[in-house]
Design a protein that fits this description.
11 helices; single chain; about 0% strand
């Protein structure tokens, strides 16, 4: 990362309107969890003329990581109005989940599943919402199991922690 970061710094020093360099440096900074600087670089990339949906999505991802959920949500919803995808529905649901608007989160995750029935992330998040709502345990467990079946191995921790008792057969 450091070599690439130096290269982007040099490009920007030579041309402070080089939008792609700001965008790429912003992505690197976000991967290093330096979200404040990543946000500034992505803003500069957009100001310099690189205002694609991909740049906006990356910008919203950074805002989400900075816990600026309302701002991220607005961008995700705008992007979804142009090109509705399961990925954007999940991101919208994540914003709602973080804001504790669980009914909206559920709607977004179910919408994601309707567009991509093989999305482990959508099922995992459905399990998390039902667990947060203190709903029927088996409902959360069923969604987490589906996520695990689809390859989201982090769901196993929730299954082991929350679903063990209901999965044991009573003699």
């Amino acid at each position: 990362y450091l070599g690439a970061l130096k290269d982007y710094n040099l490009c920007i020093k030579q041309n402070d309107q080089y939008a792609e360099a700001y965008y790429n440096r912003g992505i690197l900074l976000a991967r290093q969890r330096n979200f404040g600087l990543a946000k500034k670089d992505l803003e500069k990339a957009m100001e310099s003329g690189l205002a694609t949906d991909g740049v906006h999505k990356q910008y919203a991802n950074v805002l989400f990581q900075m816990r600026l959920y309302d701002e991220a949500l607005e961008i995700y919803q705008d992007l979804s109005s142009k090109n509705a995808t399961a990925e954007l529905d999940i991101k919208i649901g994540n914003c709602y989940f973080q804001k504790q608007h669980l009914d909206h989160a559920l709607k977004s995750y179910f919408l994601a599943v309707s567009k991509d029935s093989l999305s482990p992330e959508a099922y995992y998040n459905l399990g998390n919402v039902f667990a947060q709502m203190d709903s029927i345990e088996s409902r959360s467990c069923g969604y987490w199991k589906r996520a695990l079946d689809l390859g989201m191995y982090s769901a196993k921790k929730n299954i082991d922690s929350f679903c063990g008792i209901s999965n044991k057969k009573i003699p």
